[in-house]
Write a structure and sequence with these properties.
Chains A, B: Pfam families: DHH, DHHA2. The structure is a homodimer of 306-residue chains. The first copy, chain A, has 306 residues and is of the alpha/beta class. Chain A has 2 domains: 182 residues, inorganic pyrophosphatase (n-terminal core) (Alpha-Beta Complex); 111 residues, Roll (Diaminopimelate Epimerase, Chain A, domain 1). Chain A has 11 helices and 11 strands.
Chain lengths: 306, 306
């Protein structure tokens, strides 16, 4: 039986690229694998796939009876709804350990690094499998995306080393320039419905029994949101109510200024204010230096709901 | 802050030896570590420690405010009671993925192999750290113990390769003979209180909300239990009631005949009978070929409680 390699719901570039890179590796070591994705491909990811000549992996949301090698998450909230009917044979991830459990032994490659593809690189090295040029390219782009071209506090020396080695294999001389090109694509918002923007890189969390949703948009210049910010705020309220969330946040991250404006819709905004020791103004606040949802938002917001 | 390396409650040889071997590795790569254990040292483990010149690691049951690198489990039921007040920085394990979660990224080295020390060996290789002779000795013994000298169905080629390499480093020519010597020590039951026997290698489980406890005694000849079996059965009943368990099992494993007699105390023994398609006689049954709690008991018993 083939193993599906698949990342989280609302897939980002790391989820799609790690499904492809891990899938290739498993096939190479004699374990038949099929890369998959749980949702649509973002413009950034499409740019990466086009740049290195890949088709998007198969869209698949039901995994009952299948073997699944999870990439880039370990939380049930980001898993297919029928996860309990699938067999999880492995997890490769770089987040906190989530609430997925299994009934049989599996392999977990979980590391506190900036990107899942950095760990997939470790797996290639462990299995002594050569990384093809185009696979190296998408892995490198995923790491540049997740680490915001090394600016994110989640970035580690292991990620930087991986990018340099992958760039060499992929034949990309100026990976910084390619990264900026990628973030320019990511920054394009014109004509995109606000709901699509909120959900582009959105993750639902269960914080001590409280439902919280956090989206993030990383752009080169925050000014592009000037015309749509009111609409974004109104739709964030709607999304919160529709999904029965206590709190819905949207991080508008300026990767050049290195900080985020956070839009907050909440049943009780004082929880957010206390968590970050800030005062919201019209449901918004600028958090200087904040680039990472994982490292600079969740560890502060989660304990606030305990 | 030093990282405590520590295995599960009611530690077996793998838990103690992996705390020591992982602790040494972490110190070598510049992360200060202190091996610890959550409970008493079994006769088998004492034999291993004596054979290679080790003191037992520090006894420690409270970890609030500490950093903890967990070895040999990922279930809360086997963790210190104050786990939520500790920071789990890593997990190295070879069981199914349990219900421990974290609020920060960590490193998990989880593999479907026969022993945690086999994975610690992988970690030494990854970090290119030389394994000292005596550390190699205790790692090798832990693998021989967990894999029942390669007879257990949990044993993989990776475990066998690790033992051979570790035996070479430890300067042990006949590791099979050493394994048998170890199991002879393990088989000694004379003068040991029955409760101590039941708890010697005992693990509590939460099976879909139902509390189940399973102990295992691996011996060279089952006949040694002839005189104490009635007492064991009576005490297993007592233990079940005292701990509010639905079912308590004790596997009496004959490693030479390669099978286990299972003593079953249960609120509803028919669940066990259905799970294994057997009929209990006076609360007991011989399961031919059954050597592994992890691979031949839990995967059948757990779904029976779903």
């Amino acid at each position: 039986m083939a193993i599906y390699t698949c990342g989280h719901t609302t897939p980002d570039s790391d989820s799609i690229c790690s499904a492809l890179s891990l899938g290739y590796l498993l096939n190479k070591i004699g374990r038949e694998a099929i890369p998959a994705r749980q949702g649509p491909v973002s413009p950034e990811t499409q740019f990466i796939l086009d740049r290195f000549g890949f088709e998007a992996p198969e869209l698949k949301t039901e995994f009952a009876g299948c073997e699944l090698f999870i990439t880039d998450y370990s939380d049930r909230g980001q898993a297919p709804a029928d996860l309990d009917k699938a067999t999880v044979v492995g997890i490769v991830d770089h987040h906190k350990l989530g609430d997925i459990t299994t009934s049989t032994p599996l392999e977990c490659w979980i590391r506190p690094v900036g990107c899942t593809n950095t760990i997939v690189k470790e797996m290639y090295d462990f299995h002594k499998v050569e990384i093809p040029k185009n696979i190296a390219g998408i892995m490198m782009c995923a790491i540049l995306s997740d680490t915001v071209i090394f600016k994110s506090p989640t970035c580690t020396p292991v990620d930087i080393k991986a990018v340099k080695e992958l760039a060499e294999i992929a034949g990309v001389e100026d990976f910084g320039a390619l990264g900026m090109e990628m973030f320019k694509v990511k920054s394009a918002v014109e004509g995109v419905p606000v709901r699509d923007l909120i959900l582009r890189d959105y993750k639902p969390f269960d914080m001590h029994g409280t439902k919280v949703g956090i989206g993030q948009l990383e752009v080169i210049d925050l000014a592009i949101f000037d015309d749509v910010k009111d609409e974004l705020e109104a739709d964030l309220d709607k999304l919160r109510v529709e999904n029965g969330l206590h709190t819905a946040c949207l991080l508008l991250t300026d990767i050049m200024k290195e900080g985020s404006e956070v839009l907050v819709s909440s049943e009780d905004p004082s929880i957010f204010e206390k968590a970050f020791n800030v005062k919201l103004e019209n449901g918004k606040v600028w958090l200087d230096g904040c680039l990472s949802r994982k490292k600079q938002i969740i560890p502060f917001l989660e304990p606030a709901f305990a």
